[in-house]
Design goal:
- The strands form three sheets. An eight-stranded parallel β-barrel has the order 3-4-7-8-9-10-12-13, surrounded by four helices. A three-stranded antiparallel sheet has the order 5-6-11. Strands 1-2 form a two-stranded antiparallel ribbon.
- The protein contains twelve helices and 13 strands.
- The protein is an alpha/beta fold.
- 38% of the residues lie in helices and 16% in strands.
- It has helices at residues 3-11, 15-31, 35-39, 71-75, 120-129, 151-162, 187-204, 223-235, 271-284, 300-308, 318-323, 326-334; strands at 47-49, 52-54, 58-60, 81-87, 100-103, 108-111, 136-140, 168-172, 213-217, 240-243, 264-267, 290-293, 313-316.
């Protein structure tokens, strides 16, 4: 069935309910072994990055499967990698509902989920049980009630918990929905955090494998902030940067009825800024640092534009809501020969 026929039914539901229904339907198709019939075969065009082999360049961004409950069914959509989370050390409910809003005319979402999470223990158990068809990264964050002076401890706890199971670990200091989180992108705070994580990774790797570390950044950065973050990434041996998270800007959506809702904006209005930030990080970072493009990727042409702006890999989320699962293969095919 074409997604264009299903989408009006999903959009008749509140966004968070539609999210749950969609994931439940994907799980059912997977259990019935109908997912390949529904979505076709994965585009296999392997690439190497961060010491890992990715079946193709197109991944799932963090936020869609926060707790690792749908790894197998999401992989069946043809992704080259999945990123789970953001996961927090202790379970927490996130912000009160409603906390997810569609700006349909702009092909955008506003979310203020607030790191709703079942916690590290749950995600770890789900990862141990899952059969993987592609690399799986884990995006880690801090609990809302953790004091700023102890925030680094939350990230260290996250790294320890998933080091032996995650193919890479993404460090989220850029969500606008946890008080004080974006302040961790400031140079002194970020250097302290990345230094602590790099030292902890070295200790954990004493037995063998050192998990790649990736930093996820905001789009709401000026050139000076980008340079300072890039310097910290290079100084501490961080393997990659995800550019970008959601934005607090409402440029281009001012006339939308729900544009005034608090939270991070994703989707088409973010595309231009996310590409600019990506290109700035490519200029500021050594070629050895992997760049993962995220934010506003709504079609194969945009995926190709991010690749040409310096991305090694790309991630989808809001584009899936508006275009459906066929977007995965379309983007992967566009990137095969680039």
């Amino acid at each position: 069935m074409s997604y264009s026929l299903v989408r009006p039914l999903l959009f008749a539901l509140p966004p968070e309910a539609a999210h749950a229904v969609t994931l439940g339907a994907l799980d059912l198709l997977h259990r019935l072994r109908l997912d390949r019939l529904a979505f076709g075969s994965r585009v296999d065009a392997p690439v190497e990055a961060m010491g890992l082999t990715f079946p193709n360049r197109v991944g799932l961004a963090a936020g869609l499967d926060k707790n690792g409950d749908h790894v197998e069914s999401l992989a069946a959509l043809g992704f080259g990698f999945l990123e789970l989370g953001t996961v927090t050390p202790a379970p927490q409910p996130g912000n009160p509902k409603p906390r997810l809003f569609r700006l349909a005319a702009s092909r955008a979402l506003v979310n203020r989920m607030g790191f709703n999470s079942k916690g590290l223990g749950h995600l770890r158990a789900r990862l141990e049980a899952a059969r993987r068809r592609c690399p799986v990264g884990v995006n880690i964050g801090r609990n809302k009630d953790t004091p700023d002076e102890r925030a680094v401890d939350d990230y260290l706890q996250g790294l320890r918990a998933v080091h032996d199971l995650a193919d890479y670990v993404a460090v989220n200091v850029s969500s606008p929905n946890t008080p004080g989180l974006r302040g961790m992108q400031a140079s002194d705070v970020l250097n302290h955090l990345l230094g602590a994580l790099a030292a902890e990774r070295k200790q954990l790797a004493a037995g063998g494998r050192a998990v790649p570390l990736v930093l996820k950044v905001a789009p709401d950065l000026d050139e000076g902030q980008i340079r300072a973050i890039a310097d910290a990434v290079a100084a501490h041996g961080i393997n990659g940067v995800i550019a970008t998270n959601t934005t607090v800007s409402r440029e281009g959506v001012e006339r939308e009825r729900l544009a005034g809702e608090t939270g991070g904006l994703s989707g088409a209005p973010l595309a231009a800024r996310a590409r600019e930030v990506l290109a700035s990080f490519r200029d500021a970072l050594p070629d050895s640092v992997t760049l993962i493009a995220s934010g506003g990727l709504m079609n194969p042409e945009q995926a190709l534009a991010r690749r040409r702006a310096g991305a090694d890999l790309v991630q989808l989320y809001t584009g899936l809501i508006y275009r459906g699962p066929g977007l995965v293969g379309a983007c992967a095919r566009a990137l095969v020969h680039d």
